[in-house]
Amino acid sequence: MQLKTGIQRGVTLAVTALLGVQAGQNVLAEEKQWDFDSVLFTYMEGDSRVSDVSLRLEAVRSGETEEQLTLGLSVDALSGASPSGAIPTHTPQTVTTPSGNTNVYAAELPLNSFTDRRIAGQAAYLFPLGDQNRLNTGFTLSQEDDYRHAGVNASFSQDFFDRNTTISAGFGLSADSIDPVDGIPLALSNSDLGSTTTSAENKNVTDLLFGVTQILSPRSLVQLNYGYSSATGYLNDPYKIISQVNSNGVVQSNLYENRPDSRAGHNLYGAIKFDNQGDVTTFSYRYHSDDWDISSSTFDLRHRLSLGENGHYIEPHLRFYNQSAADFYRLQLPDSEAVPTHISADYRLAKFSAITLGFRYGIKGPWGNDWRINLEYYQQNPSDNTSDYVDQAGLDLNPGVSALIFSIGARF
Amino acid sequence: MKYNILLLPVLLLLGGCASLNERISQTAADSVTAATETLTSVKPWQRGALAQPEMQFGYLSLDASIDDHIYFSKEATSGGRSFAGGGCGCN
Q1: pLDDT (tens digit, 9 = 90+) per residue, A191-238?
Q2: Domains of chain A and any CATH numbers
Q3: Interface predicted TM-score (ipTM)
Q4: Is residue B57 situated within a structural domain?
Q5: What are the chain B neighbours of A55 within 8 Å (beta carbons)?
Q6: Number of H-type helices and E-type strands within chain B
Q7: Do A402 and A46 meet the contact criterion of CB atoms below 8 Å apart?
Q8: Do B55 and A178 lie within an 8 Å CB cutoff?
């Protein structure tokens, strides 16, 4: 459509200017087409915890061949508070972490307040290597106030049997740097004493991914992936602590957590899609297992119901997740017990289940573009949130997380 | 049938809307038919439905990457669909 082309030309000029495409590289004169996708979303947790406002942009340049360039940019503004790992008490307490001293009301979960900004960019290039195979290469970069990430990835895919079957193999390498403003805390030290080192710590992650996509029928296809991930280096969360309690459950001190310096895990993932005269059902399942003794299952179901010729659709979404606890996870530590080498009270390493209910509505815009809005509710339900200690009666030691996610997206 | 069981939550979500329920019932029946079609080589000219954007596993990849990022921040396991990755000191 002419108007859409005009919009695309305008946005193309703006994006190429932003991306620093040199003068003389007239992308509009080539037989290439830019497609753009953008999402503005908000993430809000209950009880005034974490909130995130984020903008994601993606530009894809494609031509008559399978050659394709993808560029992405995302900006996040985060604020709020997340659980420190310390337990609530029946009396007011002051909890010290690298975020500073926090005065906590009776029966209230100790939280770390924070503000952070994150900017991330990525680029990927898909090279056709012939009629049946392709090489996809890419890199990712991100920067937060206290965290930096750089990564590269590559994958090769080949079609078989008249393109009914595609196999792929790829790897990703990333090098991250963790640099809290007040330094890295000394693992297992008393957080009230504020023992920190000043140097940044590093984390490296290697990912391998193998996959098969198979067309089952003119209206269905399936995907199976195996993924291996290995992380080494500083895997602690520098802001997390764990409470040491006496025989009545009264907090005596808080210690910085300490996790193993390596983690290796496996993912098995399967997804299937069905088309039913324009309505599309997508179901996926993932099983994860790793050497921190965490295993998880994730079920995800979407059903896209077309509402007519004008491109309107609705898409309900249901996701169910459950995980076991890391073998070094503890809600708290009795002070009569020797401090283990590895210990964490991070609620994300606990045993819990989570459910997501979502709903998307999509509509074709007047100029050939399309819009979508998405509303999701996420609820995490920990299995272990009470204790038998006298002084902790009636306290919710791990209340879980609930969050509302709203996004609006546009493609043109 | 197993597939009908998987569709049950969707039916419940949309309960109360009679016309939608009829659509979903039809959809469920069509899905079973599609699933039981023989696993033979599908010719290029038979791939009209498969060529639709929403039938690609990478459909709305931007939305999928946002979901992955949120779950990576709040849960202990990630990846599967793509690299487990990381790249954030998520709060």
Answers
A1: 888 777 778 899 999 999 999 999 999 999 999 999 999 999 999 999
A2: 1-29 (no CATH), 31-411 (2.40.160.40)
A3: 0.89
A4: yes
A5: none
A6: 3, 0
A7: yes
A8: no
